[in-house]
Amino acid sequence: MSPSSTSPSRPTSLVTGASSGIGLAVARLLVERGHRVVGTSRDPDRLSAQDRVPGVEYRALDLDDLDAVGRFAAGLLADGVEVDVLVNNAGESQCGALEELPLPEVEHLFRVNVLGPVHLTQLLVPGMRERGRGRVVMVGSMLATFPLAYRSSYVATKAAIKGFAEAARFELSPHGVWLTTVEPGSVATGISGRRTVHSQESGPYAAGLRQMLHRLDAAERDGVSAARVAATVLRAVEADPPAPTYAVGSGAPAVHVLRRALPGSVVERVVARRFGLGQHGVRG
Q1: According to the model, what pLDDT value does residue 201 have?
Q2: Domain membership flag for residue 280
Q3: Which of 25, 91, 27, 21 is nearest to 59 (CA)?
Q4: What is the 3-state secondary structure (H, E, C) of 225-244?
Q5: What's phi and psi for 248, nearest 5 deg?
Q6: Which of 7, 173, 236, 281 has the fewest Cβ atoms within 10 angstroms?
Q7: Contacts for 194-198: CB closer than 8 Å, 24+ residues apart
Q8: How far apart are CA 122 and CA 89, in angstroms?
Q9: What pLDDT score was predicted for residue 200?
Q10: Is there a domain that residue 284 lies in?
């Protein structure tokens, strides 16, 4: 959906979580491509100059509050903002052994990573359908394809939004609206410093979790840039039609080919070995 296509001369894009990391890079790239860009942040008034992209209109949105999501979408409509491209990027990261994850924190993660983005999509898709054009991009994770121990809640949220996108494609594509998922591998965005970790320091899972986090932090420091992921998001926005899934980083797309070719038990052992899980990981 580029400015030179049959879509409006200046498409309007909404990017959630546009004040850092992938969202910031996506917002910048869409502005460069001539889009009108609305970016969200929990508190835009507190954003510094480096957290803002010139030309982006910042609006407050807390995906943890589904009523607030409804008010946000209503505000867009009241202001005459017709969204052509929705990039559901905002989300949180969480780690912990399944046994030790506090249920309220899991519920929070699902609201932010799944229910908030899905509800926002529900509210904006009708306008796209009525206009006969639209793109919705879910920013997922390669962990939805290659699950990792101690990341079960996060993996589940990313698998969930991918499932929504893959199934709803068949509902919306006849109306000119395409849903797709971009799955980054390890990305150097500093997210390791913002990750929520739930662990009992002397518990049975402590050693395995520490080892996994050590390897995970190293992988993210050496990961692909947010700009490279943003370029993949742009491919999904401008492709006609876009593919169901785009993967970037961590050896993609070659590792996805191997994932389809190898038995699941082999893939489990490879992932466990990469993250140093050893006796704390998969046996067999």
Answers
A1: 84
A2: no
A3: 27
A4: CHHHHHHHHHHHHHCCCCCC
A5: -145, 135
A6: 173
A7: 194/92, 194/93, 195/93, 195/94, 195/95, 196/92, 196/93, 196/94, 196/95, 196/105, 197/94, 197/95, 197/96, 198/94, 198/95, 198/96, 198/97, 198/100, 198/101, 198/102, 198/105
A8: 16
A9: 85
A10: no
The one catalytic residue among 150, 154, 205, 246: 154
What are 198's strand-pairing partners? 96
User: Averaged in consecutive runs of 10 residues, what is the pLDDT profile of the chain (284 residues)?
Assistant: 60 97 97 98 93 95 98 97 98 96 98 98 98 98 90 97 97 98 87 80 91 88 91 97 89 59 61 59 38
Asked, for residue 216, whether it belongs to a domain, the answer is no
Ramachandran angles phi, psi of 235, nearest 5°:
-60, -45
Q: Is residue 210 part of a domain?
A: no
How far is it, in rounded angstroms, from Cα 13 to Cα 27? 8
Residue 160 structure tokens: 């969930």
For residue 137, the model assigns a pLDDT of: 98
- Positions of E strands within the chain: 12-15, 36-41, 56-60, 85-88, 94-96, 134-139, 177-184, 196-198, 245-248
What is the separation, in whole angstroms, between the first and last Cα of the chain? 47
Distance from C-alpha of 161 to C-alpha of 163, rounded to nearest angstrom: 5
Q: Do the beta carbons of residue 112 and residue 90 sit within 8 Å?
A: yes
pLDDT value at residue 135: 98
In 3D, which of 157, 117, 126 has the Cα closest to residue 15?
Answer: 117
User: How many independent structural domains does the chain possess?
Assistant: 1
Neighbour tally for 110: CB within 10 Å: 16
pTM: predicted TM-score of the whole model, two decimal places: 0.88
One-letter amino acid at 123 equals L
Residue corresponding to tokens 């006609």: 240
154 counts as catalytic? yes
Q: Domain holding 183: CATH number?
A: 3.40.50.720
pLDDT confidence of residue 185: 87
